[in-house]
Each structure stands twice: as C-alpha cells, then as structure tokens.
Amino acid sequence: MEMSTHNILDQMLSEAKLSKKDTAKQQRILHAAIALFAEKGFANTSTSEIAKNSGVAEGTIFRHYGTKENLLIAVIVPFLKQSLPMMAKEVFEEINPSKHARFEDFIRALFLNRMRFFRENKDIFRVVVKEFVYREELRTELLTHVNKEIVGYLNQALDYSKGKGELPDRPNGYLLKLIFPYIFSQFVIRFVLSAKEPDVPDEVEADAIVKFVVNGIRSC
Amino acid sequence: MEMSTHNILDQMLSEAKLSKKDTAKQQRILHAAIALFAEKGFANTSTSEIAKNSGVAEGTIFRHYGTKENLLIAVIVPFLKQSLPMMAKEVFEEINPSKHARFEDFIRALFLNRMRFFRENKDIFRVVVKEFVYREELRTELLTHVNKEIVGYLNQALDYSKGKGELPDRPNGYLLKLIFPYIFSQFVIRFVLSAKEPDVPDEVEADAIVKFVVNGIRSC
DNA sequence: TTAAAATATGAGTAATCACTCACTTTTTTA
DNA sequence: TAAAAAAGTGAGTGATTACTCATATTTTAA
Fold first, then answer.
1. A197-206 per-position pLDDT tens digit
2. Which residue, among B1, B42, B44, would best test binding to A if mutated, counting the most A CBs under 10 Å from its CB?
3. So where are chain A's domains?
4. 3-state DSSP: chain B helix, strand, coil percent, rounded to 5?
5. pLDDT tens digits, residue range B82-95?
C-alpha cells in the first residue's frame, strides 16, 4: 500500500546495477507480472495469480522479490534504466549541429524513436503509466531524474533552434510544458488507452503531430 | 472486480434520473468515497475505510449501494450527467454564428469553461481519470455518449471555421484527434498529476495553449 | 563425490476484504 | 397515534490477500 523508502527511484536505479543474472523462473515471474499488471493494474493483481500464470510456486516469488511491491519495482526499473539514457542519447545525437537539423527534424526523430521504444515495451509502458497515475512520489522522483539526465540536452536543442529563429524567445521550461504533454499524450492514447494501434505507418502519424507541434510552438 | 452489465453508462445515465433524494448519511458516504477514491484509487480503498471516514456503519453503505462497484458508479454518473450536456451547451452557444466567433475564441471559451468545471469537481475528475485508465468498457461507452451528444456540435463548429478559412480542409475526426488530446492532457496534468495548481490566472494559461492549438492545427 | 549454498516448494497464517443479516431506530403514512 | 416502511447498525462470514517457513530439490564448489 505504501512505499517505505523516501527515494525509491534513486535507490532502485543504483541497486539494480549489481543484481546477478535472473534465473529462468525469475524471468517467467517477471513476464507474467508485466502482463498482469499491464492488463489489470498492480492493485488488482494477486501474487497467487502471478504464480499460477508463471507456473511457479507462490513462495518462489517472495524468495526472489520479498514483497509484491519489490516485484513491481523490478518490473519498472530496467525499463527506466533503458528509457532515460536512450532518450538522452537520442536528443544529443539529433541536436548535433553538424547535422544542421531543423527543429522539425529534431521533434520528428524524437517522436519516432520513442514511438518505437514504447511499442517494443508496450506492456511495461502501460504498467508505468498506470502506476504513475497513482503514486505521486514516483512521479516527482522520475521528474528529478529526467531533469538530471535529459533536460540539459533538451535545453541545448531548444537554444540551438532559438538561435536559428525556429522557436520564440521564451523560457525553455515554458516551451517544454507546451510540447511535451502533447507528444506524451499521443503515446498514452496509442499504447495505453486504445484497444488497437492504427494501421497507418508511424511516419504518417508522426507527420501530422510534428507539424502541429512545430507550427503550434512557433508563435507562442 | 468485473462489471456485470454490458452497457453500464447507458444504464447508469438513465437510471440515475429516477433516484430519490439522498439521505444525509448517503451524502457523507459519497463525500468520503470521492475523497478516498481520488487520493488512493478505487482498488486501494476499502469499504470499512469509507465507513469510518464518513462516520457511518459499514452496513449502511451496502444498504444504499449494494456493492462497492455501485458506489463508484454513484460517484461517477452525476459528474458525467453534468459534464457532457454542459459541454454540448457550451459548444453550441459558442459556435452561434451571430457571435461571429473566431476559431480561437471558440477554443478559448471551451478551454476556460472545462477548466472551471473540472476545478470545481476536481476530486471526481481525478476519480474518473484514474478509473478510466483501468477500465476499457467505461472508455468505449463514454466515447459512444460523447459521439452521440457532442460530436455533432463540434462538427458544426469545425465546419463553420473551415468555411471561414481558419481550419484546413481535413476530416473533422482527424482534427479532433489532434486537438482534443492536447487540451485534455493539460487538464490531467493540472488536476490529476500536479501536486498543486500554478498561481497564474486561467486566462494567461489559456492564452498559451489556445495559441498553440490554433496555430498548430492551421497547417496540418 | 560430497558438502555447502542457492533455489524452489506449498501448506499454513494472520489480516483484511466485500458483503450479509437479524435487529434497532427513525421517518413516513394513514 | 399506531402501523408500516425506510434507514441505520455492527457483529459475523467465507473468501482472498500478501507473506512465512520448514522442508525438498537443484546447482555450485572443493
């Protein structure tokens, strides 16, 4: 019901590094947990159900993870450990001035990159979104990490585009608050709320959204 | 755990009409339930907790609502019964050609109107958003009702603006899919995800978002 | 090969869950 | 005012929950 530590994500992200390799049963547990959490949510999934779906004794779950809460963390952490640095890398590469990237290209690349990543990890993405709605501490801690690892790069990208006159001279925080929710809401709709994905290619979908963002932000 | 009827919202919206007046205790139950559901979510709230917080015997809850699930419905339905028609009315009034409203004015009015309404019903809004993330049937049924009651008005508004050259000649569904998630995500961020509201007046906030939407959609 | 360590098991446990029901109290009706 | 109806109560119920632990099996190490 309640998180006991005060800095879960920090702790998680560092601890997860020194974890030994998973056993076969551990992987099956994680698989079943992800599928069930994604579909019914953490609170509506019982450990006995996870045990049954993964063909493992219930005790095995607690041998490895101690608590149900820790199992959730074991699901979320590797996803965030991948997600944040990959996004930072992508941002960094796309703003490389040698590419002479327009702001539009930057947004498009970012959008398509995250689209692919979230699709490949659709179930975990669903788990993360659903749990983040409920847990404020997770949200604020994630925000802290995003600030630390990504916002610096984003600021560079925005400043670069400002210099080329593609963005209005507004604080970056202001611009991000307008742009980011829009892109993210599209992912939530597509991967969490919609029953099935549209059969339009990503590039077509991206085009409309990128144009909307680029033209929308230009005159704010 | 599971909804038993196949058409909950339809049934709810009609049934709720002929409900007699609430007793004092019923109102206290609803109040406590809304607060608890909003904070911890439906699944993480127990009926005994609701009873305690409302100063009522647990049996009283079940006397009135039968099941915990029905209590949730009793919370959500009046909100939707207010929300949808009010939105339809607002849309209808703002597109009245005698007002010579620009598309920008229409979006601004809509945004400010919903902002006020959701703020006044912040807790219920949080309950609805949190539960809609989990329940697909609720989402699809709400969508059906929105289509029935609102989309007609929205189409009129969009066609009207198209005629004035303020919108590109694209299918209305396409335009709505670009505009609506953006506005809604701003409400979710503000009322569900953020710890506290910004101290900027609504009109200032609206200005940035409306400009973003209007300019974004113009060249899609 | 064998001892030790790690992994796996499932019956068992206390707590909590949504919900029931026989009963009392309050309100409505006639 | 008396009878009927409605509202309110709280101890009790079976089911389910997350979690434990003594024991068994498998893997690793010497």
1. 899 999 999 9
2. B44
3. 8-218
4. 80, 0, 20
5. 888 888 888 888 87
